Fold this sequence. Notes:
The radius of gyration is 25 Å and the shape is globular. The chain is mostly helical. The protein has two domains: 3-108 and 184-489, no CATH class; 502-566, no CATH class. It starts with 10 loop residues before the first helix and ends with a strand. The protein has 23 helices and seven strands. Helix content is 60%, strand content 6%. The strands form two sheets. The chain has a four-stranded mixed sheet. Strands 1-3-2 form a three-stranded antiparallel sheet.
Amino acid sequence: MIAWRALPEDGGRTLRVAGVSFAITALLGLWLAYQRAGVSPFGVPVFRHLLLFQDYYAIAPFLGILLAALLAPVRALGVALALWCARHVRTVALLTTLALAAGTHAIYHAHPLSMDEYAMVFQSAIFAQGKLAGQLPPALLEWLVPSWMYQFLRVNADSGAVVAGYWPGFSLLLAPFSALGVPWLLNPLIGGATVLVMHRLALELFDNADCAGYAVLLTLASPAITINALSYYSMPAHLLANAVFMLLVLRPTPMRALLAGLVGSLALVLHNPVPHLLFALPWIVWLAWRPDRARVLGALIAGYLPLCLLVGWGWPRFLENLGNGAALAALVSPAEMSGVLTRRLSGLVDWLSKKGPGTAQLATLWKLWLWAVPALVTVAALGAWRLRGERGPWLAMTSSAVLTYAGYFLIPFDQGHGWGARYFHSAWLVLPLLAIGAMQQSIEAAAGKPQAASGEQQAALPGYLAGCALLSLAVLTTFRAFQVEQFMARHLAQLPAAANGSARVLIIEPRGGYFAWDLAQNDPFLRNEVIRLTSRGAQLDRAMMAARFPQYELLASDRRGSVWGVAGR
């Protein structure tokens, strides 16, 4: 009757995994409860807000899943779903893409939430017109691109030319979708492709179809993967690019290395080079130790060079020539990277002592934990321990994950907005693969056994983790989707509105809400029907409207800002 009475010979390991995962989650809940005491939800930076006032509420369903997955029927259903994924991976990828595409509207409101997302979409709309820079009226620049936005957009105050401050790889990928009016579709397609690539990676590593099914299920059931695939962030593209890069270098030949370099060069310029640089470095070191290193590394470098020279060197030069505006700290040329790293290393201890971004990077572990399938991180750690003596791909893979996490201690700011551990997302693929490494023998042994009526086959650690994944897909992902939709709806509700008339200009009061200034988003050629401006004060706003838009009258005004347009019902 009780689930653990039916556990097979590795039942003790399963119970230990469940117990450790439950204890860590419960302690995390207590720590978050302590951190929340006396804190105003909208009086803290957004990274801390999301941790304390979204992630905190995921503790209860997370704990419930860890317990419910011990039940034999849940384990049986989880294993059945993993095996179904193994045999119908293309169907899974298609259904995933369709569900994510629908979710971009129903959950994410097809809206770039953060300035990071907006900058990518903004630049893609420029590329969609066959141009490198947008064009805004110089007289309106202080309302359209206030100085704080120079972190994300670069402008020439004289000409009104404007571009995104990030490297443009992801915007180039978005450009065809923006041209078709469907920029929301790219990340769902990337999400579906990620399912296929994770399946292939598991086949390459384990040469077992059932193991590949578990990789698909653990990926699909982790909210970090699905929710980010609803957004406009470049992190899903980083994850997919790194997964394809790893797939190509697992069995290196000069041709595969050349292709890996091409994929890696795109990853380097998606928005900044750090995510791929940290992930790829251990693999490059591994290739350098091989007997055929000269041919393979030569081909790899040849693959990296064209796009890196064209974009990695050319884009910063283009921004320098644009004119005014402050460059984003992450936008540095390869030649400048060593100096940046040296300066950041020198300040590392100071950041940690101030409980600033270094401490936030420690908190990233909790976000990683709570946005993955329950118990996945525990089993991945078990896999890393079990495979600690392995050399070659396993060492490179584990090193990629560790280096990606550790490297962001050198970044002097937290991740701000974003779902899950955004700074680790580019290496997230390592988690399910290490977890399967811990369970491979059990998965392969179960494949040779007849189905047991008692559910014994499903009671092993793979069955438990598959049960957690099943419940995570059904419960935790749904819960996270509800949280994100509520956050997006509340954010959009901060736009000023008028009861009557046709709005044409919204002037947003930046202090009128929580990150309300992020709502000041426009087309790069100001072709949008309703223009959104950032208020510079009521007096200046009225004078600007009288001079630039005399045909419009004030329709409404409140703490959120003012609405100008054509009166009427």
